[in-house]
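Most newcomers find our protein records easier to grasp once they have seen one. A record pairs a protein's sequence with a compact description of its fold. An example says more than a description, so a record of this kind follows:
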Amino acid sequence: MSSIGNWQHFVLVWVTARRTEFSVVGFTLLILANLSSTVDARGGLHTEDPWASHHIEGLPPEIRQNVSKQERSCGPARARHYFSRSLSPSNSRYNFISLHFEEFGCDHRSSICRPSGCLHQVYASSGAGYRLVFSGYVGELELKTIDGQVAIEASCWHSAEACFRIERWNGSNFGQRLDLNR
């Protein structure tokens, strides 16, 4: 129901209440029932399990296969919504997917996390399947474009300034460091 439809419904309920001489309490109950049904129609309370396997099942097969290797030490594969992030720049023939294992459900966190951070991986594809092009234990990794070129920005947990780095995509991997004053 649109907001105009909700307003019209409100007026109709009000007019009906006035004609039949409902009490203020009856009118209030009708309004609350209407608001409740509007909330339910728009999704109601959010009940999605934040740790769900469908965040992994939606990945390309070659990436899913690599992620399933973590199940041996972590238990059943489950992840939060931001476990995988993608970048498909219009000026590149490559598509990229980054995996953030701090968002991966693991019963033994030490198998995917170190003092410097959790495992992060980046996969690239030019149309013939995805291949692993970066893997490292960092506090955070951001896949981005800088001056029209794909790059990763990585930092560690204990000291972002001490181990901050940016590496740009050279067509086969991330390896050329950018010299940026931070």
Q: What stands out?
A: The chain has two domains: 3-41, 54-177. The helical segments are 3-19, 24-41, 54-57, 61-68, 71-74. The two ends are 50 Å apart (CA to CA). Residues 153 and 166 are 4 Å apart (CA to CA).
